[in-house]
Specification:
It holds the Pfam family AAA_25. This is Twinkle homolog protein, chloroplastic/mitochondrial isoform X2. It comes from Cucurbita moschata. GO terms for molecular function: 5'-3' DNA helicase activity; ATP binding; single-stranded DNA binding. The chain has about 625 residues and is an alpha/beta fold. It folds into three domains: about 70 residues, no CATH class; about 210 residues, Dna Topoisomerase Vi A Subunit, Chain: A, domain 2; about 170 residues, Rossmann fold. A six-stranded antiparallel beta sheet has the order 6-7-8-9-10-11, with helices on one face. Strands 12-13-14-15-16 form a five-stranded antiparallel beta sheet. Helix 9 crosses helix 10, helix 13 packs across helix 14 and helix 16 packs parallel to helix 17. The longest helix is centred in the N-terminal third of the chain and has 20 residues. The chain is flat, with a radius of gyration of 41 Å.
């Protein structure tokens, strides 16, 4: 027989061994299978006067024992050996023998520790943690079952088992995972683990049957209730709709099945109150109806699923938990944390086979939010959505059952057949812009050809169009800024436009003087440049100040740093949304902060900056003037 060394040890009962006399070595012949486990005990002293509490034993551990009959006796602490069936020992490799016998004070405690370790490893295995070769008292680095080590397959899960084998703690050190937890060998059978700060308990799902839930066929009253909603008895039978009696009340039972087996059950009473069987797996209602289907319809409620069946659509399922109040603005969480929509992941094998998924959720805000959440998870590119028809001038029908009841099965079929592509951000067709095209054709905006400048000689060459960019340049001291100020005054007078001024060269008081003089058409001071024209009066000044305050908004950087183009556009966006601004002046371009990466050329930087400005102008229907001052012209 050969003793095989292995990291994992199995154990046999000590009940019989401990009853043997302490004055004898444990000896005998055994016929053992390879998978047997055996502990060999031998007292250190044969003195019969020794008390049982002071007895000391050698403990020999073996994981696998081959067939054979052999004498059992204390082993030498010397060379490693193997025993042949004839009892003659021979030398063998250290890799194939157990550790030398250890001097044990209490072999029963050691056996208990080893048994505890086995139980602990079994619990870890239930959590998909592979701890088979982990050694107690050491930190082991394993593949995390939650994140699978990411794209690189990194062994980032740190697992530590206590020296007595009774407890384990673990944590995944990948930043995107962070799964951590602990478990005990002898606890209440549950292991606690934490994902991203949320404590959850891993529980086995209940196994339920129609008999265990005491479900019954529908009574005539409930069949009549569904008939009022135009749902036939045949449809109810095909979809296994049943009932349950409790507390002298009958509730409708919607049975959730997968491959014919009952997985969960959802109830509805006469007051439209819903509840589900606890601790059951979340799946779609009607899941077997979409097995292998290329087109799938998803609705928001079980009765809508039954309504689709009345219209001839059996490839339809209903979500189990209803709709959220609004769509989340955050990224889709990892699968193990996506508890609200776990049914989608539990049914992913069914959904992955579909080439088209029609979202027929309710027409209200929560229903549209549900459609958005489903599309985010299954892929917008293969999603369609129904558009419920109008009920009257102000309202639309809410769901499939309403359309069935008011318009009939043919109308419901037409609604599904005319489902539209689910919108994908950034991808459009011209149909999305038909209203805008019609408005442009009929000149409903009033400024389709732009707003006149106020100078007849210039109007044939240039008009100010919302959403466009104008770059103003010219030789130094040619009056570029003065012309822009005059243009703004004309646009305000003719069309009531408001503006954001980002004018870094002008002091506020000096810029105010120039604008007031153009508005009131009188000089601010009694000075030579005013000629014989009288200076503006105090009343005119007060009226002019109010006009300045109502028409212009200043974007000024109060500290010593130069403003960046992003800073200017952010302020302009706020002014558009808050004050209805129609124009932005950046004067001059040279005064902006133009720091750029060393790898980027000036041409690339200017192109990128102008693209940002044009996108801002188009998105907010705001005209932007960029004043570019060239270098001094040499004489």
């Amino acid at each position: 027989m050969r003793f095989l060394h292995h990291n994992q040890c199995l154990y046999s009962s000590f009940s019989k061994l401990s009853s043997l006399s302490s004055s004898f070595y444990l000896m005998g012949s055994f016929n053992l299978c390879k998978s047997s486990s055996l502990l060999f005990l031998s007292p250190l002293s044969s003195s019969s006067s020794s008390s049982s509490s002071s007895q000391r034993f050698f403990l020999y551990k073996s994981n696998s024992v081959l067939h054979g009959s052999f004498p059992v006796r204390p082993m030498s602490r010397g060379k490693a050996f193997s025993m042949k069936p004839n009892g003659v020992s021979s030398f063998t490799s250290h890799a194939n023998v157990p550790r030398p016998p250890e001097f044990m004070e209490n072999p029963l405690a050691e056996a208990l520790s080893l048994t505890r370790l086995n139980i602990l490893k079994k619990k870890l295995q239930e959590l998909d943690i592979d701890a088979e070769f982990c050694v107690p008292g050491q930190t082991n680095h394993l593949l995390c079952p939650m994140c699978k080590g990411g794209d690189s397959g990194e062994r980032a899960l740190s697992l530590h088992i206590s020296e007595d084998g009774g407890a384990a703690v673990w944590m995944c050190f990948r930043a995107k995972c962070g799964w951590k937890g602990r478990t005990l060998a002898f606890a209440d059978g549950r292991s606690s683990h934490q994902i991203s700060g949320q404590l959850t308990l891993k529980q086995k799902k209940r196994k339920i049957t129609v008999e265990s839930l005491q479900l019954e066929p529908l009574c005539d009253e409930l069949v009549a209730y569904f008939a009022e909603r135009l749902i036939s008895k045949d449809t109810l039978l095909r979809n296994s709709v049943m009932q349950k009696r409790s507390n002298n009340q009958i509730s409708i039972a919607f049975t959730y099945k997968r491959r014919g087996a009952l997985i969960s059950c959802k109830y509805r009473d006469v007051n439209k109150k819903f509840w589900q069987e606890a601790n059951t797996e979340k799946i779609f209602y009607g899941l077997d109806d979409i097995d292998g289907a290329s087109d799938i319809i998803i609705v928001e409620g079980e009765i809508d699923k039954l309504s689709m069946a009345e219209a001839g659509f059996h490839n339809c399922v209903s979500v189990p938990d209803g709709a959220p109040p609004s769509a989340s603005q955050k990224d889709v969480p990892p699968v193990d944390q996506d508890t609200k929509y776990q049914y989608l992941w539990n049914c992913k094998d069914y959904l992955s086979k579909a080439s088209r998924i029609i979202l027929a959720t309710d027409g209200d805000a929560p229903g549209q939010a549900l459609a958005e959440e489903i599309a985010r998870r299954v892929g917008r590119e293969r999603c369609w959505r129904v558009k419920w028809p109008k009920k009257n001038e102000a309202n639309h029908f809410k769901d499939a059952n309403e359309v069935l009841m008011y318009l009939g099965p043919e109308a419901l079929r037409e609604v599904v057949d005319n489902a539209e592509l689910f919108p994908i951000r950034g991808l459009f067709n011209f149909k999305n812009y038909f209203d805008e095209i019609d408005s442009y054709y009929h000149k409903k905006g009033g400024n389709e050809f732009g707003v006149p400048t106020g100078w007849k000689a210039l109007n044939d060459l240039y008009n100010v169009v919302p959403g466009e960019l104008t770059i103003v340049t010219g030789i130094p001291n040619s009056g570029k800024s003065e012309w822009i100020d005059a243009l703004l005054c004309n646009l305000n007078e003719s069309s009531g436009w408001k503006f954001v001024l980002c004018s870094m060269e002008n002091q506020v008081r000096e810029h105010a003087r120039k604008l007031l003089e153009k508005r009131i058409k009188k000089p601010f001071f009694s000075a030579r440049y005013g000629g014989a024209v009288e200076r503006m009066s105090l009343d005119e000044l007060e009226q002019g100040k109010q006009w300045l305050n109502d028409t212009f908004f200043l974007a000024r950087c109060e500290n010593e740093s130069l403003p960046s183009i992003n800073w200017v556009l952010d302020l302009a966006k706020a002014a558009v949304l808050r004050h209805g601004v129609s124009g932005l002046v950046i004067d001059p371009y040279n005064e902006l902060d133009h720091q750029r990466p060393s790898s980027q050329t000036e041409t690339e930087y200017v192109s990128q900056m102008l693209t940002k400005v044009k996108r801002f102008a188009q998105h907010h229907a705001c005209h932007v003037w960029f004043v570019a001052h060239p270098r001094q012209v040499g004489r």
